[in-house]
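Deliverable D2.4 — example input (structure tokens):
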């Protein structure tokens, strides 16, 4: 392990030499001399290294404080700029989104500063364990970290307060818009309520009229029911006088119902047969029309083929006539040449 520069300085060496010379002039035991030398050297080392360690810790904390102050100043300027921009556009709808973006940006900056502060503290803590005065170095690093942390906390509280104020303003604006809408729609709601109330009252009056009418018609309905019962009793008396027993009356009714059922069944069958015949007539008509169409198409095809055959025959006749004329001309030319 390399020797520390604190123990290589000339004052410490000279002090050690003086101590040895003093103890040489005074007769003391060897153990006492060794203990005294060790105590003196340790005291001098502590006295000389304390200012150096304090100076080193101060130099290490100074850059952190400077960087924290610079970051805080830049963030404050950014916050002021964002605040001014948001204040200028507070009356527009886009300002809400701009303020939200500004809040997010400021929150990201604060989070980044917190991470950087924690990182610097971790580095300083790691470096302190390689120094002589570990606790002193740790306390200085912790104090520096807490100063920056307090600054960040202060700005975080301010940001949270601004966000709460912004949300409160947005709630107030929404409430004002809702109140304005309610006030604007109040006449329409009043008209709807009045119309609904009038319709309800009309229905209630109509219900009362219907109830009164049913109450007034109750005696007539009772009289009709009584008349029906009287007719039933009279009909039973008439059947008894004609000698028709209840069983015969039931049989007659059953026979009548059977006849009515047979008639209805035959009527349904006749309707079904009529519908079937009508469908057959429609199908026959469609088949006849299809045959007529096919016949007309066949006739047109035959005429077209006949016309094409006549044209081909005429063309063939003309070709033969032309060949015959050419042959005659060739014969004449041969005769002339001979």
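Example output (designed residues):
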């Amino acid at each position: 392990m390399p020797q520390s520069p604190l123990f290589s300085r000339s004052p410490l060496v000279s002090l050690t030499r003086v101590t040895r010379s003093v103890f040489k002039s005074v007769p003391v035991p060897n153990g006492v001399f060794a203990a005294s030398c060790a105590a003196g050297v340790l005291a001098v080392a502590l006295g000389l290294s304390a200012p150096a360690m304090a100076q080193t810790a101060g130099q290490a904390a100074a850059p952190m404080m400077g960087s924290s102050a610079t970051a805080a100043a830049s963030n404050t300027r950014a916050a002021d700029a964002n605040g001014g921009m948001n204040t200028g556009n507070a009356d527009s709808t886009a300002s809400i989104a701009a303020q939200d973006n500004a809040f997010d940006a400021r929150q990201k900056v604060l989070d980044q500063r917190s991470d950087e502060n924690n990182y610097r503290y971790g580095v300083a803590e790691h470096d302190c364990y390689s120094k002589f005065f570990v606790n002193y170095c740790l306390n200085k690093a912790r104090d520096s970290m807490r100063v920056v942390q307090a600054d960040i906390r202060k700005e975080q509280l301010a940001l949270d307060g601004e966000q709460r104020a912004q949300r409160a303003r947005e709630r107030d604006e929404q409430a004002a818009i809702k109140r304005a809408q309610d006030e604007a729609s109040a006449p329409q709601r009043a008209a709807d309520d009045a119309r609904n109330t009038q319709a309800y009252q009309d229905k209630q009056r109509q219900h009362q009229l219907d109830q009164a009418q049913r109450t007034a018609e109750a005696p007539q309905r009772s009289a009709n029911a009584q008349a029906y019962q009287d007719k039933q009793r009279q009909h039973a008396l008439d059947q008894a006088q004609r000698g028709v027993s209840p069983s015969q009356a039931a049989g007659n009714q059953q026979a009548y119902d059977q006849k009515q059922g047979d008639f209805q069944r035959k009527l349904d069958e006749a309707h079904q047969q009529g519908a079937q015949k009508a469908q057959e007539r429609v199908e026959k008509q469609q088949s006849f029309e299809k045959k007529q169409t096919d016949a007309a198409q066949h006739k047109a095809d035959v005429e077209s083929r006949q016309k094409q055959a006549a044209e081909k025959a005429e063309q063939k006749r003309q070709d033969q006539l032309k060949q015959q004329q050419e042959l005659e001309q060739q014969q004449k030319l041969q005769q002339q040449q001979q």
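DSSP finds five helices and no strands in the chain.
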